[in-house]
Design brief:
- The chain is α+β, with helices and mostly antiparallel strands.
- It contains three helices and three strands.
- The chain has a three-stranded antiparallel sheet.
- A hairpin with a 2-residue loop joins strand 2 and strand 3.
- Helix 1 crosses helix 3.
- The mean pLDDT is 95.
Length: 68
Amino acid sequence: MARKLDIARVWLRAALSDGEAHVASELLAQAKAEGIKVRTLQLAASYEAAIKAVYGSKGIQAWQWKLK
């Protein structure tokens, strides 16, 4: 598990390296296409990303991740 988590953390840091906030669902889809499981990327995000909810008129509209 540690190796898969390390791979996910490296992947996520690279994906967020531009310093911008990214929609989490898009990152999850990209990672899944590259063979990284959703839960593994979510765990990686808990270490690497500042996680922010974006609110719309009906509550949470999306989640965004940005490097800490």
